[in-house]
Specification:
mainly beta, Immunoglobulin-like, Maltoporin, Chain A, 2 domains, 22-stranded antiparallel beta barrel, 5-stranded mixed β-sheet, 5 helices, 44 strands
Amino acid sequence: MLSLPKATHVLPQRFRATLTLLVLLACALRADAQPPAADLRVRVMDALGDPIAGASAVVDADDRGRGKAVITGADGVAIVPVPELALPLVLRVSAPGFGEHVEALQPGSAAFDVTLEPAARTEQVTVTAGRRAVRGADLPADATVLSRRDLEVAAAGTIDDVLRLTPGFSLFRRSPSRTANPTTQGVTLRGLSASGASRTLVLADGVPLNDPFGGWVSWDRVPQVAIDRVEVVRGGASDLYGADAAGGVIQVLSVEPSSPVMRALVEGGTQESGRVSALAGTRRGPWTGMLAGEFNTTEGAIPIAPEIRGPIDTPAGVESSVLSATVGGAITRLWRASLRGHVYDEDRTNGTPLQDNDTNQRQASFDIAGAGPWGDLRLRAFALGQGYDQAFSAVNATRTAETLSSRQRVASTMGGGSAEFVRALGRVVLLAGGDFRRVDGDMIERRPVGAPTVADGRQDMLGGFAQATWAAWSRVVVVGGVRADSIDVETTPGGQRDIDAFSPKGSVAWTLGSAFTLRGSAYKAFRAPTLNERLRSFRAGNTLTQNNPALDRERATGGDVSLAWEPRRVSLRATLFAARLEDAITNVTVTTTPTLITRERRNAGTIGARGLEVEGRVQLLPSLSVAGTLAWTRSRFDESDEPGLEGNRVPQVPTAQGGFDVRWQPLAASMIVTQMRWTGTQYDDDRNLFELGRSFVTDLMGEHRFAEALRAFVAIENLFDADYDTGRTPLRTVGPPRRIRGGVRVAF
């Protein structure tokens, strides 16, 4: 019998026990959370009087950040220390999606009620995906920021589905992460994709979230209740991040508790779905601690289209568990340190009895940051170990039987670190640093007949970068940066290979009046092939895709120009972009038979991608807002030595995609959210033979607040039960049908 050892699955039991500890910890920590008498009590509300959690409040004597920022809890309240500084003092309050509130602080003030007005979605928030915190209005790049509230009111309930409303975002396949094979969760922005590997770097609190071996993303690795916000920065970012950021950067940021806090989410629904997510955090003096966990399960739905299903077809589902812990605080007056630990386990069924996969992962990271007369310094180190198992099968033509074709086991490790230095010199801010990362992977593939196939590889990545940000005039910000990378790859089979890259980028942001901002950038970027592309083959349906140890890097050149208009209550941005990806790695069709299509990963040619992105939001009434996105992308193989490839559309990139988000509060304590996503036609293959039709999916969510700490919700995914293509291998696979779920959110 064909089998490989798997790690013992004990995390769900640990997680269930941890839920009780989270509750007890939060209650105990709140017992002595009384503010000192000299502090200021600030209550932050929106225009309807609802508390705003996650708002930042600080008392300061000027705008140089001398005060200590405090984040509001679920009740919208923050206890803000008043520094012993010379008067006049000011209170500054800000929150994602709202304009900043600044108010003079009078002597003897003890409490403030602050109402924040809706503001531009990006211009008034801080973006950190550029390795340092920058106010959105000063960021010379297109950025979208999704708040924790955006994730909570999304009916789909997963990060990847919420990100599909972001212009230019796409995954290798249309399937949502809750039913898809994780290897299809390769992220791309602006059409720079020709295979399942990510062209976009995804970070979680500064540490790569991309799989170390394959580059795909497991979105469930971050508990939902622990997410503070998600930042999306489009356009090449190799000048700062190197090989993984040819298309852009996505940063998932976790909650940093400033006071005792507890959050919990419990939900259940059709398709035997359920999720429990919980967080407990506190601050004791200069130290903070947080414990978060999540257990998620769903039976899923059958991925094969109804017209070709057979007795062998079963639902594709998932059971995942994650537990993370963070402790950090001030080790001196100017230096802070934090330590994070992370355990993740995922088991998936892939649509037939024999096809499954599982992932087991352990990760730790350490971060220390401080300031001195010479500038600010941040040092980070991280390590990760992972096991991945995957089983493939062959199904007969009538779909009545299957036979196991292979079982793969991949063991991989990743370790690395980075150093970043920031110093302000008048109108210029200098950023410099470097990073190193090593990835090791070993794969064994067993088949029913013959000897096992064994492969292994190592990838060392070393890079250094420098960037200067110049506030040329009061309304103009100019940024120039460059990075040099040296990558050493050694694989068996394949041998040794060196990759060197030089990645410059220049950007400018010009604020025109009080409401317009003009941005532009030009860059060079690159992507190095993953060990997965070099060493591991895979099978999807009747299509076999082979590995290629001889793959070379991809090289990108591009630029964009955008205009943002953001008066009060309105946000509108339009961006024109163009990029050229040379030596693009593509799954090239090699042979075709009635029962099997064989492809191989190759540096197949040059992709030309250009298009238009539009993103907008308007607050029509205090109780009604409408947001929309539109992306038109022309992505084709402009040059190729592969027969029949030149002029074809790039696989899995739709010509047009977009969506709407409508939020209505009929009552002060109730909200109804409708989200619609549509995608134009796209092709599943390099030859443009297997077309995926247009899709239109509508989700609906209703929420009611019964108390400040308690909200209940009902969500309907795929409201109209749309039948839409997710793949053709050449067998047609479809997206999940309607799913209904309901639950409660608790926050203290």
